[in-house]
Design brief:
With 236 residues, this protein is an all-alpha fold. The protein has 14 helices and no strands. The longest helix has 23 residues.
Length: 236
């Protein structure tokens, strides 16, 4: 299938697919390079379905948009200015002659940015951001997917580097942080066990009590009573 001159398409969907690379950019940061490449291939297939084989001009626009879209997205979301990568990718944009060239050029651009991200980002910074996110969202969704999305890491990569740098699994860290917050609230407030369970992100007061007793060897109520005795019978 040869890339050839093409008449100007009128479909707004076509122009959106040609210029808007947000889904590919997001996939590269939040998922992985293979997902991003697959989305790009699907985008090209949809363009061909709408208007036939890409013309030289359309191929140039698509690949240039991909290159600049990734550059702008990474600069805004990750504070990475990958100017050298953007400049070098011009080679992939030039010399496209057929549809297979379009796919290969897009793949090269995506893989170049993926390599640049890995070379420019320190894992420690990501872990610090992930830990900070956990601390401020203990009452919310702290699944690997949710936290990974918040710090722009795939859940698989977050899981991998978390154990390496923190020394425990991500799930263990979240549980410990929730229990630490719960102990503080039990010692310093008169809030009900149900309120504390909710504030610390446990599914129910019963589940909270089970996890707490497994960790502390006593129920939340017993812990509160023991803390008050140590404090001379005070409430906080």
């Amino acid at each position: 299938m040869t890339v050839c001159p093409a008449a100007r398409p009128e479909s707004m969907d076509y122009w959106e697919l040609l210029y808007n690379q947000h889904a590919v950019c997001e996939a590269l940061v939040l998922e992985n390079v293979e997902v991003a490449k697959a989305l790009f291939h699907r985008q090209v297939d949809r363009l061909v379905h709408l208007h036939g084989p890409l013309g030289i001009e359309q191929a140039f626009i698509l690949l240039t948009s991909l290159n600049r879209g990734l550059y702008n997205y990474l600069q805004y979301q990750l504070n990475l200015s990958l100017t050298a990568c953007c400049y070098d990718n011009r080679v992939s944009v030039q010399g496209v002659r057929d549809m297979s060239d379009v796919f290969r050029a897009g793949d090269r651009i995506i893989m170049a940015y993926d390599a640049a991200i890995r070379a420019n980002q320190g894992s420690r910074t990501h872990i610090e951001k992930a830990c900070a996110y956990v601390q401020t969202h203990l009452d919310g969704d702290l699944s690997l997917s949710a936290v990974g999305e918040a710090v722009y890491l795939s859940k698989c990569h977050l899981c991998e580097i978390f154990r390496e740098l923190v020394g425990c699994t991500f799930g263990d860290y979240v549980r410990q942080q929730r229990l630490t917050r719960a102990r503080l609230l039990l010692r310093t407030t008169a809030r009900t066990i149900e309120d504390i369970a909710q504030a610390c992100g446990f599914q129910s007061a019963t589940y909270f009590a089970t996890v707490f007793k497994n960790e502390m060897g006593m129920s939340p109520t017993q812990f509160r009573q023991a803390s008050r005795k140590q404090q001379g019978g005070g409430k906080g």
